[in-house]
Amino acid sequence: MEGGNNRTIVIGPQFCSPQPLQISMKKKVYFLAGYGYEVKDDYGNLIFTIENVLGFFRSKILIFDAVGVPILTLKSKNFTWHSRWQAFKGDSTDEKDLIFSAKTSSKFQFTTKLDIFLANNISEQVCDFRMKTSYMESNCDVFAGQSSTLIAQMNKKYTAGSIFLGRDKFMVNVNPNVDHAFIVSLIVILEEISSSGKTSSHSSTH
């Protein structure tokens, strides 16, 4: 879903800025009520809120724009060999509203690689985007397809709040004309896969 003028549009053209963008994502942990994220631009303006919605069988994650309209729903796909997540338009989880899928291409103890496939890439022979984390997953690079073209980078900030309270903070640099709603959704998926891997590592032999 790439638009004209060399823009990388996945969620919507309104999320593409002609200027490079620095975004901060702060994880907020709620007592007895899950967690969410506040996403702000480099001027401190709120651009997205993200909420983990707990379901009967499994949870899903909703991304809202600045005025509270749901723009994307993320959910994991159960019973797949690779960790796999799907992203849908608005608050839908209907297959016809699928925008993209993301799955781990490899996961070692300290790094993760994700392949991202747009909905029209049925065969999934070649990924449309890919993510690669650094040692201990403190940094992440997002690339266009199999190329070395970098479109965004994430850097995790470690603070006392993040270490002891789970209030992680991420700084995300998005290249000009790249859909920043898409990039934010990838960071959330990466964090979900990373955190689930940590919690399930002890039970992986069962």
TrEMBL record:
Pfam families: LOR
InterPro entries for this protein: LOR (IPR007612), LOR_sf (IPR038595), Tubby-like_C (IPR025659)
Superkingdom as given in the UniProt entry: Eukaryota
Transmembrane segments: none
Family: Belongs to the LOR family.
Name of the protein described by the UniProt record: Protein LURP-one-related 10-like
Origin species: Datura stramonium (Jimsonweed)
